[in-house]
Amino acid sequence: MTLLDEPTAAAPERAAAPRSRAALWVLPPLLVVLLIALYPLLRVLGESADPGTWAEVLGSAVFRDALWRTVAIAVTSTAGCLVLGTFVGIVLAFVPFPGSQLVGRLIDTVLSLPSFLITLAFTFLYGTAGAVNAAILSVTGGDTPLLNFLYTPAGVVAAEITFFTPFVVRPLLAAFALVPRAQLDVAASLGASPLRVLRSVIMPEAWPALVAGGSLVLLLTLNEFGIVLFTGAKGVITLPVLIYTRGIVTFDLPGAAVIATVQVVLSLGLYGGYRMVFARMTTGRGVADAAVEQAK
């Protein structure tokens, strides 16, 4: 018995050595993350440590206007993306038509493009010298461009909706693919209208994907810089544009650091709220599914 027990006692000691050495592999990526992510944030916080700079920046009308405009554009763009993305997702998933797969591929392609290309395309289409205005003037014979919204907050919102809607469509398509066709057939056989099937069967399964896509779009639009800059909208000053102006143009690094800190706090607060809401939704769905299983 003694000879049999000795190898068993020595086995954990031999297994512990490779595990301790494997833990050392965590250090290189951890150091890279600290260097790339944490160090710049600490530098920004260090530049914004002066209370006088905080009072000067937060008390300025330019900062308040930029904060309000940033939130307004982000919320409006997110609402537009949710409405348009839900409609496109439902059509692609449940209304088959020739070319639907091509449309899906085009949506995936938009996800890989930089945002300024959308703004450039909008300029060629809807700018004062764009194709749409040229076509209208050729028909009406006028000399004043009819469309002049591109260089306003409405133009920024339209460009952001166009670019960020695929971030809502793609999670919705994944969620719609998980809806059993048998449920749809049973609901239709019981006399439910398509609108009721959509409201009672399809959308409850898609709410987590809709919340996830909407939260991602809200985060991205809150920090969007390229679309606003390339649109060239006069007077449309958002927080990212204000950071660029004060940090690069006027070399006011402490002021830019204060605004950047506010931007980081907004983003982290929004992300934390999204995680809480998403956790509650998934927990609620888990409890409901468990109750259904017990009822069966």
From TrEMBL:
PROSITE patterns: ABC_TM1. Pfam families: BPD_transp_1 (PF00528). One of its GO terms (biological process) is transmembrane transport. Residues 67-272 form the ABC transmembrane type-1 domain. CDD domains: TM_PBP2. Keywords: Cell inner membrane, Cell membrane, Membrane, Transmembrane, Transmembrane helix, Transport. The keyword Cell membrane applies. One of its GO terms (cellular component) is plasma membrane. It is a multi-pass membrane protein. Gene3D superfamilies: MetI-like (1.10.3720.10). The chain crosses the membrane at residues 22-42, 71-95, 116-137, 149-169, 206-233, 253-274. It is found in: Cell inner membrane; Cell membrane. InterPro entries: MetI-like, MetI-like_sf. Belongs to the binding-protein-dependent transport system permease family. PANTHER family: INNER MEMBRANE ABC TRANSPORTER PERMEASE PROTEIN YDCV. This is 2-aminoethylphosphonate transport system permease protein phnU. It comes from Mycolicibacterium brisbanense.
